[in-house]
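Re: Re: C-alpha cell formats

Sure, here are both.
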Amino acid sequence: MITSIRQNSEKGVFVIEESIGVDYTEFIHVACPEQEFPTHIYTKWRDPSGKREQGIHLLYGKYERFNIHLFGLPQSLIRNFTVNDLEVPYEVRGFVLIIKVRGNEPYEELRNMPDDPLFSGLAWIRKHGLPFVIVILNKNRRALQPSQVQNILSLNTQVSSIAILSSLDATSIGSVLSTLA
C-alpha cells in the first residue's frame, strides 16, 4: 500500500465511467467550471505485484461547494489496481459511477449490463467498501426508476444515491456530490 500525507479534512472522490463512450471529463468539467480545463494531477501507483511503482496523470477538479477533490479514472485502468495502490493527497471518501443507457428500453439494457464483460466498474467499486453514487444518463428519465436500478444491480446500503439524469448540469452534479460530502 502506498501511503501519503493527507491534507486537512478535504475529501477525494473518484469519478468512473462504466459505459464506453461516457466521458467522465464532462462530469468534472461541469462540476468545476471556474477551473482551467483540463487539469491533471500526477499520482504514483504500485502494480499489484508490488514490484514496480509508476506514475499516472489523472484528470482533476475541485468542487468548491463541498470541498471535494474529483479524480477522473478511466475504466481501462481500474483493472490494474485498487485505490490503496494510489497515492493521492486527499482521503478517498467515495466514488461516482456514470452509466449511460442509450437505447429505448433502458430497463432491459441495464438488466443486461452485469453480464457484459465490460461491466467491471461496479464490481471494482464494491470491493473498496466505500460509499458511492450511481449516475444513470438516460434521455428518457421517466422510463427508469431508482428502485429498478437498485434491484437490477443488486445494490445494498453501500450505495449513497442513484441519480437518473438526462444530461449533466451544475445543479444535478451538486445534488450527486452532496451525498458524498
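Second one below.
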Amino acid sequence: MKKLISYLSVLVFTMSCACFKNIESTESFIEKNNIENITGTYENFPSSGNGFYVRMLTDVFDRNINMLNWKDKYDAKNTKVKLQIIEKNKLNVMIFKNEKMVFNKNLRVKLENDGYLYVKEKRFMIDGIPLVFGGWNIQKSRLGVDENNNLKIQSNYFYCNGVAVLMSDWKTLHYNLTFEKQ
C-alpha cells in the first residue's frame, strides 16, 4: 500500500494534468513593457463567463492559495479585489470587504510569451483516500488583460476521484472569466 501511494504521488507531481496547452485562448495584452496593465481594482463577480468550482475572483485565489479561513468569515457581496505588480515575478492580491482589507498576500507569477501571468502557486488537494474512496484535485490559473483593460482569468481544474480503484474518473474543467476593472 505504501508503494502504491508513493507511485501515485510521483505520478501526480510529475505530470501536468491541468495544463493550458489545448485551450483556445483570446489575446492578452500584457507584455514585459506594460505588465502594470494588470494593476487595478476589480469586481468580485465576473461580467462574462461562469464556472462550477470557480464563480468569483476570490474563488480563483482560494483554490490556488488556500484562503478558506477568509471565505468562512466573509460573503462575496461588496467585495473588491485589488491586484498590483510589485516586482517582475510578484503580484500583490488585496481583498476588501466594505472598504476594509481582509486579505493581503504576495503571489509568485510568471509572464509567459502568450501574454498571460501564470500563478505559480497551485494547490494540491486530497479528498478522502485517493482512488480507494476519494481523490485529488489540482487547479492552475493564469491572468490576462483584454483590450478594455478588464481582467481575464483562465483556470483549469483537474480532478481524479474513485471508489475501490476500479471505478475512477479523471476530468479537467476549463473556466474563462472576465472581471471588470473599476
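The longest helix spans residues 2-14. The chain has a mean pLDDT of 76.
- S.
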